[in-house]
Amino acid sequence: MNERHEMKPWYREPWPWVIIGSLSFVVIACFFTLGLAIWSYDGLVEDDYYKKGLAINQTLARAARSEALSLTASLSLLPDGTVRMVLETPDETFIVPDDVRLKVVHARFPDQDRNIVLRRVGDNTFSGEMVPPSSGRWHVILESDDWRLNKNIDAPVKEIVISAQGRG
Hints:
Elements: H1 14-39, H2 49-69, E1 72-77, E2 82-88, E3 99-106, E4 114-120, E5 125-129, E6 136-143, E7 148-155, E8 159-163
C-alpha cells in the first residue's frame, strides 16, 4: 500500500489555467468597455438637462392650450419642397399667429432634424420650404408661443394631420 503519487508542475494542472483564463477575460472585457465609453458618442444626453426639465412645464401648458382650442393642423409636403399648412379651430376668439415653427425631428439621428418657420399666407394658411424627411420614424412638432401640436409619423408621407384632441 505504499503508493507513490507523482506531483505534476503547476502549469500542467487545468485549474490554474481556468482561473487565469477567466480573470484574463474579465480584464479584456473591462478594457473593451472602457474603449466604448471613451470613443463612442452619446448624442442623447442633454448638456442643459435642468433647463430642459424646467421647460417641460411650459410645453405641457402649450399642449393643454392647443387641446382647449381644439386645434387641428393639416400639412401638405409638396414635391418641390414647399410645405403648406392649414390651421383650424372652432374657437372664434383664437388669434392666428403670423409665424408657426415646424420641427421635424428624427427618432435616432439628430443631424437630420429640420427646423423651419412657416409664414402666414392667408387667413389660416401657412407656407414654408423644407427638404422632405427621408424614410424612417419622425416626430413632427408644430408650435407657436401659445400652443403646441405634435405627432409621430413614419416617412415618407405627403399629408400629415395633427389634432390636439387625439394628440396626433
